[in-house]
Amino acid sequence: MAANPRSSADGQQEFRTLSGIDIKDVYRPEDAGLDYSQDLGEPGAYPFTRGPYPTMYRGRLWTRRQIAGFGTAKATNQRYRFLLDRGQTGISTDFDHPTLTGYDSDHELAEGEVGRLGVAIDTVSDMEELFEGIPQDRVSVSLTINHPAIVMLSMFLAVAESRGILWSELRGTVQNDSLKEFHGQKTFALPPGPSLKLTTDIVEFCTKHVPNWYTVSISGYHTRESGADAVQELAFTLAQGMAYVESAMDRGLPVDSFAPRLSFFFGCHNDFFEEIAKFRAARRMWARTMRHRYQATRPESMRLRFHTQTLGSTLMRQDPQNNIVRGALQALAAIMGGTQSLHVSGYDEAYDIPSEEAMRMSLATQLILAHESGVTNTVDPLGGSMFVESLTNTMEEKANEYIARIDEMGNGSLCQGMLEAIGNGYIEQEIARASYEYLKKVESGDQVIVGVNQYQPTSSQLPELFEFDALEEERQLNRLAEVKRSRSDAQVADSLRNLKSAAAKDENLMPHVLEAVKVHATEGEVMASLQDVYGEYVDPGVF
Amino acid sequence: MTTQLHHRNIKVLLAKMGLDGHDRGVKAIARAFRDSGMEVVYLGMRVTADQIAQATLQEDADVVGISILSGAHMRLVPRLAQALTDRGIMDDVLLLVGGTIPDQDVEPLQQLGVHGVFPVGAFTSEMVEFIQANVKSGKSSPFQHQAGEPQPANLSGEVITETRQE
Questions:
Q1: Quick one: which H or E segment has residue B11?
Q2: Which of A141, A218, A222, B2 could be cross-linked to A185 through a Cys-Cys bond (beta carbons 3.0 to 4.6 Å apart)?
Q3: Do strands B2-9 and B158-165 pair parallel, antiparallel, or not at all (unpaired)?
Q4: For the residues of A182-235, what is the DSSP string, one character each?
Q5: Residues 24 to 53 of B: which have CB under 8 A from any A CB?
């Protein structure tokens, strides 16, 4: 056996995961190095490696949650109803770039982007229209927004209140992961310190007033899309989570009061086993960290639950139908890794936001895996695999090395360490390095991408693309102008003045933002008021 | 007739216009261009047309590369072309646009004065070759190669201007 040179049929010489972990030809019990109760435990029990719940998909399938949003609130509301009618069980709101970055639709930087890649929300009136006819207390809603999260969540709560729905009945998530914005997604509006303050304001407010809401969706997906490898995604995401825990504890909140309402959001790439190992390692690392570092005692505080989105950046423009297969493989890895909810990216991702046909295919992918593949019949089917357990251990070790480095930068405070690692460009540079290495492998052909650098198609069928209605921008501008005409400018000015003075006094800003949006202050007005106090963040252009 | 070659590194100015935060591509491109011997200035995200044009002038860049993945390219690129024209440098630079660009927008972009369109998935090697083949020579103040100065080591990353003498 050892006499044979290590090469596969088509000449591959090196065997590594996508993040560069060496892979042996075969794994044996000593490689897995497993202490069952210490390292795995029962599903639903510490350290949760095998899953957050005892019965996993036997008890309940994952939530099929395809993100959607485009144009005006009215157009997006129709897409939500379309998806709910076709088996989707939760709503995930994609906002347009002006909304994500805190600008109103009539701001000069918003030109051409209003409603383009997500829904445009300027005022509470838009939020009302977005959820028209959708029972906010029965459908779980994910608001995918970060630095202006405090504004969007306030609008959502205000709409619920006006419909007579108790806040305690609301179930959903606000992404609210401000720190990752500096290395992933980049829809920042405020500097790192103040954005962390707002994230913590939401954690504190919801812990007291919206008890069933998930207050932060600690996100690795965007970090991965920025070019991070699986180890970096794991490390930086958990480090973000630790920073939020420390920040909330610094406010005097007991760890077990808010930790159960933190959730996670990961991407899923092509390397099947590495991704599964990443998910399993994430659960174990979080459990160990929460118990040992932060002295959490409730199992719910240690139990990591996550949403997965298959990575848009893995979807190729060349031969787009191949992306259906990639989406299915990535979705399968997420399920084998024990995800709680899933979005399969549209196969036309490299062209535009998904068409209805692409979304139908993404949902069908999920349904086929759920009902036809049989992989849901037992919990953690790969648990005990000598390869998967070894890889899970290695992922944990390597991610912990990154976390230790960040911890050092903060002299034992992950919160300070993250602010430091963001400020000095460490995280961005690490990601840029990994991203460029991967790109070079693809361009040199060392990493085969079917249809791109090998097996190029001779002809390829172009997908039918999403057709953006260019008039949506104008409609939204008219809507905003109408709201501004009919509101009381004096009330708005008062509410913004109160907000600024509360910010200057370092109070929790949630109640003040709520007051402002109720009198129809716009998102841009609230964010500009906060920027008056806190300043703006400008991209340092690290590469 | 003799042909004299003047060398200097190609200078590329990169920026993202609009609000989208997808900067993985532009950053990797920045590294790839630098590795091929070009001088790279990356302005970062959310840069306006005027800021880009002003920086192009100040940096005396040979190439301007814009990355847009928000779908707003047909709105933003005309503004950039105008800003470059206003400063009288539209004809001096090689203008490249990359990002989520549908096929049907390639020709309209070219009509606006864009020389190269590189949709998501284009290889950096293609871009480097394109720049080397098309970078504009004979700029108003080219670096004059001085006798006795060492030749730049990396020939692939140079502007070569020809001065013909009768």
A1: strand B11-16
A2: A222
A3: antiparallel
A4: GTSS----S-HHHHHHHHHHHHHHHHHH-TTEE-EEEE-HHHHHTT--HHHHHH
A5: 24, 26-28, 30-32, 40, 42-46, 48
Half-sphere exposure (Cβ direction) of B104: Cα atoms closer than 13 Å: 5
Residue type at A185? Q
> What number of CA atoms fall less than 13 Å from residue A188's CA on the CB side?
25
Cβ atoms of residues A140 and A174 within 8 Å: no
Contact between A454 and A448 (Cβ < 8 Å): yes
Residues of B in contact with A185 (CB under 8 A): 21
Of B100, B117, B99, nearest in space to B108 by CA:
B117
The Cβ of residue A326 has, within 10 Å, a number of other Cβ atoms equal to: 21
Tens-digit pLDDT profile for residues B19-46: 988 999 999 999 999 999 999 999 999 9
| Minimal Cβ distance to B100: which of A352, A540, A543 | A352
Provide the b/e sequence for A162-171 (b: ≥16 CB within 10 Å): eeebebeebb
**Which residues does chain A have within 8 Å of residue B22's beta carbon, measured at their own beta carbons?**
186, 225
DSSP for B107-165, please give it.
Answer: HHHHHTT--EEEETT--HHHHHHHHHHHPPP--SSPPPPPTTSPPPS-GGGEEEEEEEE
Handedness of CA A366, A371, A372, A374 (dihedral sign): positive
The Cα B132–Cα B13 span in angstroms is 15
β-pair partners for A538: none
Interface pTM, i.e. ipTM:
0.85
DSSP label at residue A95: B
Question: Is residue A47 reached through a cis peptide bond, with omega within 30 degrees of 0 on the bond before it?
Answer: yes
CA angle A415, A18, A396 (to 5 degrees): 40
The tokens for B125 are: 């090697």
pLDDT digits (tens, 9 = 90+) for A181-205: 999 999 999 999 999 999 999 999 9
- Among the listed residues A372, A330, A324, the one whose alpha carbon sits nearest the alpha carbon of residue A349: A324
